[in-house]
Specification:
Strand content: 15-25%
Number of domains: 1
Radius of gyration: 18 Å
CATH topology: Rossmann fold
Mean pLDDT: 92
CATH class: Alpha Beta
Low-confidence stretches: 3-11
Structural class: alpha/beta
Number of strands: 8
Length: 244
């Protein structure tokens, strides 16, 4: 079963999680013939569902967390429901099935069986995620130390699949070569702090130790924060395939 590590801070997740670049969607859409229906599995705050809704007639978005769905982006053609790897959706329903920054939590064998059941002929599956952020050499040193030594013991074992760029996960479909992507934002120190606090490892650290370790990291990086907003960059990786 999928793990629900985000219900307890769903509003923070919705406020501080990064959004994905147009280039990523353009590449996915270039392989799609029909834009009738898409399934966004593990939708979280609905950011992908929102972007898909601009191209697809309807988007069905699922998550195991009703709290996440309560905080998700709304649109007339997005239909949210609470579901995991299996769904009540009819067979041959979707032209695109995607999972953003969540496939590592899934029971993938069960999910892939469901994908094959609900996909239309010629449908596409896209799974993607992003790795550890980078700002500048001084701040990056502190981020890496925090990631490995402070909250490292609190990451679930599935996190290594992110560190490996999803290269090691099973993906039993007709895979399509994909280019490398990255995306960046201009963030204030507060936005940087807010994003780090959404990490599942940080949330687990806080429950175990009764304080937020991000506060100490912010103190260490303040002097290296050179302007009101700094460029924050993420490596972005994707696997794309035809389902049938």
């Amino acid at each position: 079963m999928s793990k629900d590590l985000f219900s307890s801070h769903a509003s923070q997740y919705a406020a501080f999680r990064p959004t994905y670049p147009k280039e990523l969607y353009d590449f996915i859409f270039s392989h799609i013939k029909n834009f009738d229906a898409a399934w966004d599995a593990g939708t979280g705050n609905g950011q992908v569902a929102r972007d898909l809704s601009k191209r697809f007639k309807k988007v069905l978005a699922t998550d195991i967390s009703d709290r996440q769905i309560e905080n998700a982006v709304q649109a007339e053609n997005i239909f949210y429901s609470v579901a995991g790897e299996t769904t009540p959706f009819p067979e041959n329903s979707f032209d695109l099935i995607c999972v953003a920054q969540a496939i590592h939590w899934f029971d993938r064998d069960k999910f892939y069986s469901e994908v094959k059941r609900v996909a239309r002929p010629g449908a596409i599956i896209a799974i993607w995620g992003y790795g550890l952020l980078s700002i500048n050499s001084e701040i990056d040193w502190h981020i890496n130390d925090f990631y490995v030594n402070i909250v490292g013991p609190y990451w679930d074992k599935e996190r290594r699949l992110i560190d490996e760029g999803y290269k090691t996960i099973s993906f039993p479909f007709q895979e399509i070569d994909t280019p490398s992507f990255s995306f960046s934002f201009q963030w204030t120190l507060r936005e940087f702090q807010g994003y780090l606090t959404t990490w599942s490892a940080v949330q687990k650290f806080m429950k175990s130790n009764n304080f937020n370790p991000v506060s100490e990291l912010i103190e260490k990086t303040k002097s290296h924060w050179q302007s009101e907003k700094m460029i924050v960059q993420f490596p972005l990786f994707m696997r794309l395939a035809k389902i049938s």
